[in-house]
Amino acid sequence: MHQGGTRLRVLSIPAGHVYTAAIRPEDVEYLPDPDIDGHWWPHPALDAAWWEDLPAEQLPDLVHLHFGFDHLTPGQTGAFIQALRSRGVPLVVTVHDMDNPHLKDQTDHHEKVRLLVDAAAARITLTDLAAAHLPVGTRVIPHPQVVTDPPPGAGNGQAPGVFLKSLRGNVISDPFFYRILARTVRRELGRPLRIHLHEDPATGDLVRALSGGRLSGVIDLRVHAPMSDHTLHEAVAECRTVLLPYLRGTHSGWLEMCRDLGVSVAVPDCGMYEGQADDPQGVEKYRTGDPLDAARALIALYGRGPVPYAGDRAEQLRQIRAAHRAVYREVTGR
Prior knowledge:
By secondary structure, the protein is an alpha/beta fold.
């Protein structure tokens, strides 16, 4: 085990992701991500064989696994755990996804999470709701700030909106859902539902189904290339409230982004999204996949008006980093 100096050397999987970069304590070193054709995944350290040849002086003080293990089978996950044990490297696991948003069949994912949680020297998750489904002693450390430089006018948006991007696997793609949602919102609020979609082969059918005709004035359809973070933040800030159109999942960085911008969020009841809220007035839960209940949630939020973020993000980030530092020092005894 590496003992040089006082800085802990943590193999964070991943290290350079916006979330993991934000939570890293200043006196902790995260080992750099590999460059695999310009990406960090699949991280080679998740392969048990990687540990067999690693010189003792290069061993990290601990491994902190967040995500990126989708490609592993449960058997390979068990082999990874055993490899860490054989080298005496403790494992810290943050459970971001109790349900993997990109998978319809959760069987293998649930088994892998169980194996990792059972083997971990420390377990972390983002909400009390998620912790209630994990072993006693799981620490709750909230999601940090996403937007550090809000655009002018953030918190004064007026549109009810939904951002579908390129229709990833956990996003509702049925045009019927959006037609019913938009017509109900238009009738009750007198405003069209603003729908953002990427220009992408995957979105073509939905774009055609939501364009023109009797939906004119009901749907404000905006089809565009993927946005930079700054442009995205401006687009979200033009909304008073935004709907998360998810079919599954657990926690959401998108929700945190909206709340940083003072935008309220209609969230499905399939995950732990409601439990992320800084202010109960800033979210409204709806039945997953139900367009009428989704419309009810959007309309209720719209009627509340702007809901600014409740709390001090800078102080929260200080506490988040201190909490991770405490976990790392506890599991290493340093």
